[in-house]
Each structure stands twice: as structure tokens, then as C-alpha cells.
Amino acid sequence: MDKGPYGRRDRLIVEKEHDTYREGKKWPEGTVCTVCGAVFTEGRWSWKDAPVRANEVICPACRRIEDKYPAGFLEINGPFFPRHRDEILGLLNNEEKIEKEEHPLERIMTIEEDGEKTLVTTTGIHIARRLGEALVHAYQGDLSITYGDGEKTIRVVWQRD
Questions:
Q1: Of 3, 78, 136, 137, most Cβ neighbours within 10 A?
Q2: With the C-alpha atoms ordered 4, 8, 14, 15, is the resulting torsion angle positive or negative?
Q3: Do 160 and 140 form a contact (C-beta atoms < 8 A)?
């Protein structure tokens, strides 16, 4: 086998970390998301006004939503949820509003109810954790958190009878 000038060619190079939605490069200053209007400025996404001649892209959160590919999963279990549904959904939406204000890429994607089990999907891992911790703070119950795929995904389970 020909090794060439740089050694063996048949070796597979494995990335230590790969996340399709993690930006490997910095966007030009003033880049704007064409879907949600978030602006990349000073090295992060924010809700500032876009410059007149902005570079246009779709931000990672909007791409996750479009692809239906969540990073966070919050599972709500137990008979407590149906009895307090409106209060809990209000809490989750308020927490999302607070988190999204500071971190535009952290959003709730979907809330799917199925009897005593409800699944909330999120665009980021931080908001999923925040939502679970808010439930414990407001209503007690049991919380478990599991990271997966090298901490690129999170599964948060909250339960109260």
C-alpha cells in the first residue's frame, strides 16, 4: 500500500466532537437570521436591530426547528400535570421568554401531551434544564437529568404524583 508523503492514507480521522448545529466559524458582524430576526453581533446571537446591509443566514435554533431536531427533551410525568396543566404551561412559557430574551438560540420547539406524559422539546440543552429546575422550584417533585452524545443533548424528566 502506498503511504504517500504523509503516512497511511487508509486511516479514518474521527472528530472529537461534531454537532451539525454548532457553528464552526464566526459569522460576520451584523449577520441576521432570515427566519427569527436574531442578529449575530459581538460574537453571539442577540435581539438587536440588524444593520442595513446584513449578511443573511438561518440561525442554528431556526435550523433545528425546521429540521425537527431538538437538543433538549423535557418529559413531564404523573397525574399532577393534568390537574395543573394551565399553570405549568404558563410557567414553561414564562421561563422560555426569560431565557430567550438573553439567549435567542434557547427556545421551546414543541409541547406534545399524551395523557399523563408530556414531552417538551427545545433547541438547546440549557433551556431544557432550566425548565426542569423551574418545575422543581415551583411544584417540588422528582427531577432527573441525563446528558447524551457528549453533552450535545439532554433528557430532563420531572415527575410528581
A1: 78
A2: negative
A3: yes
Contacts of 42 (CB under 8 A, 6+ apart): 29
Q: Grid coordinates representing 84?
A: 395543573
**pLDDT exceeds cutoff 90 at 151:** no
Alpha helices (H) in the chain, listed in sequence order = 60-67, 80-83, 85-102, 125-139
CA 123 from chain center: how many Å? 2
Cβ pair 86, 94 in contact under 8 A: no
The yes-or-no verdict on residue 56 having pLDDT over 70 is yes
What pTM value is reported for the model?
A: 0.84
Q: Which tens digit of pLDDT belongs to each residue from 15-37?
A: 444 456 766 678 888 899 999 99
Q: Which residues pair with 46 in a beta bridge?
A: 39
Mean pLDDT (whole number) for 121-135: 98
pLDDT for 1 equals: 47
Residue 161 is given by DSSP the state -
Q: What are phi and psi of 101, to 5 degrees?
A: -60, -40
Single out the residue of 131, 152, 153, 148 nearest to residue 74, CA to CA: 131
125 class by beta-carbon count within 10 Å (0-12 exposed, 13-18 middle, 19+ buried) = buried
Q: Which three cell numbers stand for residue 19?
A: 454537532
